[in-house]
Every structure is written in structure tokens, then in C-alpha cells.
Specification:
Residues 1-29 form the DEAD-box RNA helicase Q domain. Residues 32-203 form the Helicase ATP-binding domain. Residues 229-373 form the Helicase C-terminal domain. Residues 381-395, 411-422 have a biased composition (Basic and acidic residues). It holds the Pfam family Helicase_C. By secondary structure, the protein is α/β, with parallel strands linked by helices. The protein folds into 2 domains: 3-204, Rossmann fold (3-Layer(aba) Sandwich), CATH 3.40.50; 214-358, P-loop containing nucleotide triphosphate hydrolases (Rossmann fold). Helix content is 35%, strand content 15%. The protein is built from 14 helices and 13 strands. The strands form 2 sheets. It has a 7-stranded parallel beta sheet, sandwiched between helices. The protein has a 6-stranded parallel beta sheet with strand order 8-13-12-9-11-10, with helices on both faces. Helix 3 (51-65) crosses helix 4 and helix 6 (128-137) packs across helix 8. It is globular and about 70 Å long.
Length: 422
């Protein structure tokens, strides 16, 4: 099968060919015909399998066949980064068609988004929270939506977006096509699909396991030597881009400082960063200005960066699903990649769960020349600097504090003149 078999609009075929695409991926081959026919569907596939084009191409095709004014397609996705990447895909594949799209997410101003929504762009790519804001302000009208996509649906439920999704669904026409794309199908998502996409066709591509192009290894290490081991690994992995995952935002910031002090070009990505800061970090990582990106799990899904040679879990992920999605950032598009995880004795339970999920033991490795028995502890990345000590003797007079001398301040009671008798 090739893309010509889908009988796409000539402009779409030209754009597909310009991207060098000839044969659809398995998820595209099975979902595009269903989507073109207007059926509800659930697409299950791991990351890096071409899910975005699997719903973008049918949306564009149907919009070109039936041109109308106003927003007709809504794509809901969990993160700003994923919204931007989907919107970029739409722009590339819709080039020359006149179809317009707009990304809607928080962390940036409302007014440019309001102008795009009021202009009636045909496709809206939105994060749930900001879309709810626009619905409340009356700047988003969804009564003309004919096609709905919930992308990374399991991730949105994990992030607590179910109430927001239900609010969005209440603003949509009941007669529409609904497509859910996800890596897993937990019970909560099955319940949502039953009411949101009735009689949906299920398309599942393989097991939710890492790509065969990824080499896995774990590095057992004492907790106080994790940072030192990571720095040695980064020096040895001296080619390609490296994505380092941490469990917390504070640890990501501290780890970035350690890496930068070693002379590496690095950036950090987590939810406390502004949208502009996050975009600068991603752009720099993509174009090679930053060889290392330190991130929390906000980057585990939807991060589309070519040629990531290594994913290193500084902290082991909490679940096998999170592990699969983290390491799915490497080994993409038939390229090889390495996934390293630093593990301490406390991580034994998570290691066993991951091994059961991927169906194979993880190779244990030791880094040649590294001193695992050094007694000098590395900096604790979770430790905040202590507060300055207060007065050791709280009963002692505060002779070191000078009296206030500002003209606007009243003198202390012991400095006030005695009151004259009346």
C-alpha cells in the first residue's frame, strides 16, 4: 500500500510527496480509510508510529471536500509542545490549500488566540484548560465542529483533564466524528470512549512495547554517586543529542547546573518554565545549540526531536508505561538509540515491573573506570540551601541592629521625648 491508494486531494498528495512519504505506517494504513469514511475510531499505537498524520490527513481531506466557514475540526491534546507540533504538521500538509489552523494553549496571551478563533480558522488544536477559558469568554465557538480528535487520550486522563474534556464535549454537536488516539486503553478511557465515540472501530498496532531499535541498560549505583555517574556517562556519550529525565522540577534545575558546570551545552524543560522559555529550550535542542535537554515527564510524550541518540533516566520512572514513553524519544524512524537508567537499591521493584512489561531482562552494566565506592557524597539534588542562622541567644539585646533613621519612620518608644504636662 502507498499513499496514492487513499485517493487524497492532489494538493495533499503533493505535500505528502514533498515530505518524502511514500508508504503509510501501519497505524496510518489502518486508520486513514476508516477516518475518511467518517467512522468513529480508537487508534492504539506507541509513540513515533505516525499517529499525527493518521488523523491530520483525513481531516484535511474532508475539509477540502466540503468547504464551510468556521471551525469544523477540533484536536485536543495534553501539552503545549504537542499542540505546536500537531499544528506544524497541519501547516506542512495543508500547504497551498487555504485551510487554516490555530494552536490554543496556556502560558501565552489570550488576544492573538481570540483573533484567530474569531477569524474562524477551520482547525483548532487546543489544550483543555485554555480552551475552557476561551469558551467561558465566548471567543471559541464549537457548534460547527464536525470532527473531534482526542490525542494522547490516556495521558490527558492521567493529568486530570477528564472534567475539562467533559466540559468541552458538552459544547460540541452530538452528531460528529470522534477519533481517540492513545498508547494504552485503561478502563477510565474505555468508559469515556463508550460515551464519546459510540460504535468506534478499534485499531491496535502491536503491543505497547519499546521499539526494537532501542538498546536498554541499567546502571546500578549508590544514591550519592548518581550525579557523578551521569556526568561520566555524558562525557562518554559525546555524540548525538541526549535527553535526561528527572522526577522533579527542582532536581531538573539543580542537575542542569551540574551539567553546565562540566562544560556541556544544556537546557531544561518543565512546567514551571514559561511558554517562551520552553520553546527556546526545545528549539535549541532541535537545532543542536543544546546537546543535552534535562526534562521532567512533560517531555515524555509528543516530543518530536530527530536523532536523539540517548535517553538517560536519572530517576527511574514510576510506571512501566512512563518508562516506555520516555525512552520512545530515541530509536525513532528505524534509527538506533540507547536508553540508560540509573538505579539504586530502592528501585528494585520498579525494575522488575519494567522487565515484565517489556518482556525481557534489562542488561546490568558498570561504567569502566568509575569509582562506585567513593565516600565523598555528590550534591544532593533535592537539598535546598539552609536558611541563615537566626540569633543564637534570643534573649540577648539586639545591639547589632541600628535604629531606624528614615525621616518617614517614627522614633522608637525609648527615643521619644517625654510628654509635656498639660
Amino acid at each position: 500500500m502507498n499513499f496514492a491508494d487513499f485517493a487524497l486531494h492532489p494538493a495533499l498528495m503533493q505535500n505528502v510527496s514533498a515530505q518524502g512519504f511514500t508508504q503509510p505506517t501501519p497505524i496510518q494504513a489502518q486508520t486513514i480509510p476508516l477516518a475518511l469514511s467518517g467512522q468513529n475510531l480508537i487508534g492504539l499505537a506507541q509513540t513515533g508510529t505516525g499517529k499525527t498524520a493518521a488523523f491530520v490527513l483525513p481531516i484535511l481531506q474532508r475539509l477540502l471536500q466540503n468547504r464551510q466557514r468556521g471551525t469544523q475540526a477540533l484536536i485536543v491534546t495534553p501539552t503545549r509542545e504537542l499542540a505546536e507540533q500537531i499544528n506544524d504538521t497541519i501547516r506542512v500538509l495543508a500547504h497551498g490549500t487555504g485551510l487554516r489552523s490555530a494552536p490554543i494553549y496556556g502560558g501565552v496571551g489570550m488576544e492573538p488566540q481570540e483573533r484567530a478563533l474569531r477569524a474562524g480558522v477551520e482547525i483548532v488544536v487546543a489544550c483543555p484548560g485554555r480552551l475552557i477559558d476561551h469558551l467561558g469568554r465566548g471567543s471559541a465557538r464549537l457548534d460547527g465542529v464536525q470532527m473531534l480528535v482526542l490525542d494522547e487520550a490516556d495521558r490527558m486522563l492521567d493529568m486530570g483533564f477528564l472534567p475539562a474534556i467533559q466540559r468541552i464535549l458538552s459544547a460540541l454537536p452530538t452528531r460528529r466524528q470522534t477519533m481517540l488516539f492513545s498508547a494504552t486503553l485503561p478502563a477510565e478511557l474505555q468508559q469515556l470512549a463508550a460515551t464519546t465515540a459510540p460504535h468506534a472501530k478499534l485499531v491496535q498496532i502491536g503491543l505497547v512495547r519499546p521499539a526494537h531499535t532501542i538498546t536498554h541498560a541499567i546502571y546500578p549505583v549508590p544514591p550519592h554517586r548518581k550525579t557523578a555517574l551521569l556526568l561520566d556517562l555524558l562525557h562518554k556519550a559525546n555524540s548525538g543529542s541526549v535527553l535526561v529525565f528527572t522526577r522533579t522540577k527542582h532536581r531538573a534545575n539543580r542537575l542542569l547546573q551540574q551539567i553546565a558546570r562540566e562544560g556541556h551545552s544544556a537546557a531544561v524543560l518543565h512546567s514551571n518554565k514559561s511558554q517562551n522559555q520552553r520553546q527556546l529550550a526545545l528549539d535549541g535542542f532541535r537545532d543542536g545549540r543544546f546537546r543535552i535537554l534535562v526534562a521532567t515527564d512533560i517531555a515524555a510524550r509528543g516530543l518530536d526531536v530527530e536523532r536523539i541518540s540517548h535517553v538517560i533516566n536519572y530517576d527511574i520512572p514510576d510506571t512501566p508505561d512512563a518508562y516506555i514513553h520516555r525512552i520512545g524519544r530515541t530509536g525513532r524512524a528505524t534509527r538506533s538509540g540507547d536508553a540508560f537508567t540509573l538505579v539504586t537499591p530502592e528501585d528494585a521493584s520498579q525494575v522488575r515491573q519494567i522487565e515484565r512489561a517489556i518482556g525481557a531482562p534489562l542488561e546490568r552494566r558498570q561504567l569502566a573506570g568509575f569509582d562506585y565506592n567513593a565516600q565523598v557524597p555528590a550534591v544532593n539534588l533535592d537539598e535546598r540551601p539552609p536558611r541563615p542562622p537566626r540569633h543564637e541567644n534570643r534573649n540577648a539585646p539586639r545591639t547589632s541592629v541600628p535604629p531606624r533613621s528614615s525621616a518617614g519612620n517614627a522614633p522608637r518608644r525609648d527615643q521619644r521625648p517625654a510628654r509635656r504636662p498639660v
